[in-house]
Amino acid sequence: MIKNKSGLSLVLSFLAVTTVFAATSPRPSAQLPPVTRLTAADMPYDVGGTALLKWDVRPEDTPDVLYQIYVSSMESGGWIKADEFPADTRTGDGIELPFWAWNASVREHVVKVELNNFYGEAQTTGPVFRFKVTSVKDKKSYDSQVVSAGTVSNWFRLDRLNNLVMAILVFIVFFWAVSHAKRKGLFIRRIAGLDAIDEAIGRATEMGKPIYYLPGIGNMTMVSTIASTFILGEVSKKVAQYDSTIKVPHKDPVVMTVAKEVVKQAFLEAGRPDSYREDINQFVSYDQFSYAASVDGMISREKPAAIFYMGWFMAESLLLAEVGSTTGAIQIAGTDEEAQLPFFFTACDYTLIGEELYAAGAYLSKDPMLMSALKTQDFGKLVVMVSVALGGILASLGGLMHWDPFTRIIADLFKAY
Amino acid sequence: MSDTFLIAGAWISAGLTIFLFSFLYKDNPFFKVAEHLYLGAGMGWWAQVYLYGVLRPKVWAPLMNHDWMVLVPTFLGLSLITQFIPGISWISRYGFTFLMGYGAGLELPTKLATDFVNQIGGTIQPFVNVAGMSSFALFNAVVIAGGVICVLIYFFFSVEHKGAVKKASNVGIYFLMIYFGASFGNTVMARFSLLYGRFDTLYTFSASKYLYATQFILAGLAVYFIVHALMNRGKKEIEPAQ
Q: What ipTM was assigned to the predicted interfaces of this complex?
C-alpha cells in the first residue's frame, strides 16, 4: 500500500515537473503562413506613379506580426523595402477615396506604394514593377508570391465627381442668369463704397488734380485683377465724361497692356477718344517694393485728389495707402487679400471687402454678363449656406445615432480630394 | 582693401536706409536718389531673373537640344511684345487669349475645390464626431458654422439687406472685424520685426569700425533739412503742374 502510494506520488511529481518545464521552456514558434491572394494594380484616379497592393485580412494578423512591402523594377532581385507596418493595420477604409469611387472594405489589406519615392518620377508611370509582401514574426519572415503591375495616369478623376457636378450646376445657373439678365435685368443691392466713386471723380475734376488708379500687383490670371480692370473701365469712362485726368501705374506689364485697351475703350465709349493719352497707363517696376517706393514718390509729388486701390495687394498696401492719406486724397480701396484689408480700413475712406470687389464691376456697368457672374456667385454662396446648415444637422444626427456609413456619405460629399 | 569695401558697403546700406526713412518727414532729393536706385536695381534684378531663370534654361537650353515644342510657348510669349508695334499688335491677342483661358481653366477646378467644396466640408466635419465632443468643442463648431453663414449673408448681393437678413449680415460684419483685428495685429507685429532689423543694421553701422556711418549720415540729413527750411522760409510750397 505504502509502496503503491509512494509510486503514485512519484508519478504525480514527475508529471508536475514536466508540466512546469513545458510551460517555462521556449516553445518553437507557430509557422506563419505566407500572404496569399496578393494582387497589385494601378492606383485609380491619380496622375500615375502609385500602385495598390491588396490581400485578405487573416486571423494571424496580430500586432506582433509585421508586414513588409518590397518593390523591384528588375526582372530578378533589386528589392527595395517600400513600407513596413503592424499586421492589424492598413485596411481598405484607410484609402482616402469617396464612397462612389471606392469600396472601403475592412476585410482586406490595402497599401499604396508611391513609386516616386524610390524611382525617378519619369520612370514610375508606364513600366511594370514587381511587388511582394513579407510577413515577419519572431524574427522569421515568410515571403508571398511575387506580383507585378504598372501604373498609368488617369484621365478622369471619379473621386472628384462631386466637384464636376457642382461645376455643371454652376454653369447651368450662369447661362440661366445670362438669359434672364438680358430679358428682364437682375437686381443687385446697393454697395456703399461704390457710390463714392462719382464723388471722388467729381472732387478731382473740381480741384483740377489727377486721379490715381492702382490695379494692384497681381497678374492677369487673378480674379481680383480681372475685377479691377472692369472697375477701371467704368472709372475711366467717368473720368473721360468729366474731362478729368487719370493715371494708372503698373507693376505687371501684361496687366498694363490689358488696362491700356480697357481705358482706350472707355474713352471711346464716353465719346472722348481725343482725350485718351498713351501715358495714362505707365509701367513702373516689376519689383514689389520698388514699385511701392516709386508710386509713393509720384503720389507725394503730384498730390492727386482721388486714389483707387483695386485689385490684389500685399505688403505694399499700407505703404501706398498711408502716403495717399497724408496727401488728403479721397481713397477708395478694394481687395480680396484679407490680410491687407485692415490696412485699407485704417488708411482709406471706403473699402470694398473681398467679394464686393468682384461685384463692383457688375454694379457699376450693369452689364448682363457681369451681372450674371455675380448672380452665379450668389447662387454658390446660397449652396454653401444651405449645405453648411443642412450638412451640419445631418452630420450631427449621424454622429449621435452612430450611423457611420451615413456620416461617411455626408463627409464624402463635401470633400475636395 | 576688404576693409574699404566693408566700410563702403556699410555707408551705402545705412545711407539708403536713412534716405528712404527720410520720406517719413517729407519728400527730398535724398529719398528721390534712393527711390530711383531702388527702381533701377529692382528692374535689373528681375531682368537677370528672367534671363537666367527662364529664357536660358527653359527656351535656349531645350532649343539647343532640338526640343522644338518649346517654340510654341515661346511664340505665344513673344506675341505679347508685338503690342509695341502698332501694325502687328493684333498678334498679341493670341498670347493674351491663351493667358486668360489658361488662367481661368487653371483657377476653376482649384477654386471650386478649395473655396467651395472644402469650405463646406471643413465646416461640417466637426459635427461628424458630435457624440464624442466636449461642450466647448461643440460650441466652437456651432460658432464657426454660424459665422460662415452670417458672413456669406453679408456678401449676398441678390437681396436687400433689411429685417432678418440685415441682422444676420451685421453679425457677419462682427465676425469679419474680429478676423481683421487679429490679422492686423499679426501683420503689424511682423512689420515691426522688419523695422527692428533695419534699426539693428543702423546700430551696427554706427560703430567706429564703420567710421560712424549712421551718425554722419543722420547728421548730414538733419543739416540739409535745417538749411533747406531756412532758405525756403516764407516761401509757399509750389503745387504740382496740372
A: 0.79
